[in-house]
Design a protein that fits this description.
about 180 residues; alpha+beta; 8-stranded antiparallel β-sheet; 8 strands; about 25% helix
């Protein structure tokens, strides 16, 4: 990192370049163990508006043409960020494996602006929940910032991943509290 952002776990769809680039599909993840069975946790992670309760950016989502998750289903997510205001983005469900995985990509199915995924692993009566996200390789809101300051691309990406990581951590902690009956 460049010293201004905390260290977080990083992943890459390809690369990484040195320094990192959007084409590397940089990402991050968070993980918690929840005292609840996968069925209970999966019902929460597939509630597409639930993360809005915990995120500083995500405002909610609504299904398009359906009312439930399935591979190929579409939903529109609403977001707000202090640097660019509010926007809506299309999301496409790519994985829906009951009690195991739920994943979606944004903006363009063939060239996603980002990918998001929940994976559940049973551990006896408990569930390990992993929430991961990656940026790119396609264009998204971050593309504008990179295009206006190309020399700062690695710093912009790292800062954005730190923001995502914080919201993701708050989300899995909120899911854990609900699943365990503490919220």
């Amino acid at each position: 990192m460049d010293g201004t952002d905390p260290e977080i776990p990083l992943t890459f769809g390809s690369g990484p370049s040195d320094p990192i680039r959007l084409a590397d599909e940089p990402g991050t993840w968070v993980e918690v163990v929840i005292d609840a069975p996968p069925e209970r946790v999966f019902a929460l992670v597939t509630d597409i508006s639930l993360p809005a309760r915990f995120s500083t950016e995500f405002l909610g989502a609504s299904w398009v043409g359906t009312d439930r998750p399935a591979v190929g289903a579409v939903f529109n997510g609403r977001n707000r960020h202090k640097a660019i205001g509010e926007w809506e983005v299309a999301a496409f469900v790519e994985v829906h494996e009951p009690n195991r995985s739920f994943a979606w990509s944004t903006i363009d199915r063939s060239n996603p602006g980002s990918r998001w995924r929940f994976d559940l692993t049973p551990e006896g009566a408990r569930t390990r929940l992993r929430y991961s996200a990656s940026i790119g390789p396609g264009p998204s809101g971050i593309t504008m910032a990179i295009e206006s300051m190309p020399d700062k691309e690695p710093r912009i990406l790292r800062h954005r991943l730190v923001e995502h990581h914080g919201n993701m951590a708050r989300t899995v902690e909120g899911i854990r509290a609900i699943a365990e009956g503490r919220a």
